[in-house]
Amino acid sequence: MKVSQKAYIRKIRYAVQLWFLLFCIYIGYRFFQFVAHFETSGQPFVQRPPSVEGFLPIAGFMSLKYFVFTGIIEPIHPAAMILFVAIVVISLFMKKGFCGWICPIGTISQYLWMAGRRLFGRNFIIKKEIDIPLRAIKYLIMALFLILIGIAMTPNMMILFFITDYYKIVDVRTMKFFTEMSRTTLVVLSALVLLGLLYKNFWCRYLCPYGALLGLVSILSPLKIKRNEEHCMHCRKCSENCPSLIDVEKKTIISSPECYGCLTCVSHCPSEGALGVTMRTNRSRIVVKPVFYIISMLIVFYLFIGIGKFTGHWESKLPYGEYKRLLTPQVKDVLKEQ
Length: 338
Ligand code: SF4
Ligand code: SF4
Hints:
Helices cover 63% and strands 5% of the residues. The chain has 17 helices and four strands. A four-stranded antiparallel β-sheet has the order 2-1-3-4. Strand 3 and strand 4 form a beta hairpin. Helix 2 (57-70) crosses helix 3, helix 3 crosses helix 12 (209-218) and helix 5 (104-120) crosses helix 10 (183-198). The chain is globular and about 70 Å long. The model has no long low-confidence stretch (mean pLDDT 95).
């Protein structure tokens, strides 16, 4: 059997994923040091990394709605909105490429099922009759957020929320969720890790509401994976290796909202011209080089960050004194009780 010449795509993907994962660990550590400065006496001041707001998609969505209605970018967590928009735009044009290439949770999910495959000799597959209703969970959670924030919450309600102490340090609270884990959190996370070892991308496939939203947006993407029947050898390597369990060999165009745009199928295909990224034009679909797909995605991502920085909507405007007020141990205890 011919081996695919496009294995380099996988290598690039693993490198890109590792870069973003390491970067997230680095900014997480910097943020931890930033908080420690206020909570522990004698700790030196460390600049707060705004990118931590990438972990606040709900705040990003809220800020986006607020911006659409008022033209004002909420100044406490502006990077949350910039990153949210960047990620939605990537999904709109380049499938769920964010999930497949950038998201650190997606990368950890992938490492888990790869480790599980080594450990148990294979990954398990949930029966179709259970898989479909399970996949609905992430859409239900997404719908809940869309209704609560997109419909029920008015811009006036948002202003009142933005000025609460809870919102001002929602990033710190998110960090504490992991650094000061409750027993329940520990049990739930352990269960998710175990399920992640057994099943491919368990979290992303069944539970992530962000991924659900990006998947629905990605249906509109002009870029899609396309199989060319003329060149296809029906070896099924694409279907066997798809982390989203899509039966690529049976499809012509992959329009599924579950497709991560990871190009794993393309990288395993041994037949030149049988499987590739294509872009819809007025008359037909043109083939897009995988490298062009990857570079475009990274350019869009960093372009938004650059716009945020250039326009002054990247760094939080919450002053040092406010952090000091909110994170000194006495006040922290009061907030914990709220
Ligand atoms: S169809 Fe291809 S690009 Fe989409 S998730 Fe499966 S392997 Fe990745
Ligand atoms: S498209 Fe899929 S089935 Fe066809 S040759 Fe490529 S890997 Fe094999």
